[in-house]
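USER: If only I could read backbone structure tokens as easily as an amino acid sequence. It would mean a lot if you studied the pair and described how this chain folds. Here is the record:
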Amino acid sequence: MLFCASRSFRLAAPALLVGALVVWAGCDSSGGDDDEAGGAQATVQFTDAEVSVAEEDSAGAEVPVTISNPPDGETVTAEVLFASGSSSADFADLNLENLDEEGLYRGSGGDTTAYVVDTVAFAPGAEDGATRTVSFSITDSTFEAQETARFALQNVSGAQIGSATTATVGAPSELAVVIESEGSETFVAADFSDGTLAPLVPVSVASSANWGTSSSGAPFDLIESPYAVINAFDSDEPANDWLITPAAYDFSPFDTVTLSFANATNFNDEGLEGAEALRVKVSTDYEGEGNPEEANWTDVSDRIDYSGGGYEFVETEVDLSDFTDEDAPVYVAFQYISSGTGAGSSEVWEIDNVELVGSIDIPGEGE
């Protein structure tokens, strides 16, 4: 006779949500040749030593645990452990729930090294190669390019009736679940649609020009107004005005980092001798407040595709991937300068649709 059964067990966490769902999969045969196992030792093992799962995949990773040479007349069980000591994914972040004394496995010296997630069971009459599937549904509010959650098997019980040979852990007895991020993180997105400069932070070192927003000249082909704008014409002194990201960002987990935005200009500041009044700079030692001139900045303005004038918006992408090797978090800023305050010594600049995005390469994508 053939029968199938199912059962589920789920664990939840608020910061890094790891639901451990154990599904009793497949069909067990009760009947047939009771001597098929031949009295060989039963073993329980993972079917793979490593699996990968995309963090945004709500289905998660399916990790089958299998049995070899199952005994004919007794249930075989095995405990599945989360190995906190060898996982880069922290147990506190996973927030697994088995924290009572029976749910703790203590290694040498009394240190807690692993936690029992659940117990899988193979009923009497299970077929050789039968599986019980452990699934993990993972979300994480903190971006990390890759984490690893390690699991192990222990405390296998069950034996062939009439035999002193007990079931044991087979190979692979350990499993690495490699958690890949969704591939990108948006650090900053500013379209100024609410009429403010947020989340970018304006800092005026000199002049009354100051960054602001405007919808003058709308509609446009490339953007939707309002946009950010600055013009030193008729200000009190030559301009030195900044628009800076609200925080410093860690670029190190990413393969590429890109700043994209649309820009438009009009008039010409002849005192700048061919240089543009709008510049993009990067710093690892700006403190997030105060005069940005007191920090060290790398000018990457030569990577910008600039508007040719006439208030015509053009889109540009500035590659900042060379800053992924920085040991410190990175600020990104727009700087506007002028050589004066009148015609021929100032020009207007407008920007919109600002995005700062870090991306990692997911193996297999784009191949």
